Amino acid sequence: MIEIKRHQDLLGSRLDELVYRGHTTIQRYELYAWYGRQRLTQGVFKHLLETYYEAAGGKRRVSVLVEEGSYLLVDAAWLQPANKAFDIEEE
Question: N or C: which end of the chain has fewer CB within 10 A?
């Protein structure tokens, strides 16, 4: 789906960041350039997730937040309740 090797490498780098850091940001213009599209279709996002699952070694839950032309992808496995993140005891 992505024909230019440099674009494949850039996507791979972002997905590695998602695997190892738990989050990454991809700009909308990058997706247009990488996939050579004028519209971002369901097929683009399906390919993006399938490529991520391959990099992560299996299916994982990913949340996507959209804001002002960018997509923040967060691997749900990296999320934890705030009380655990800050060692707050429940009453």
Answer: C
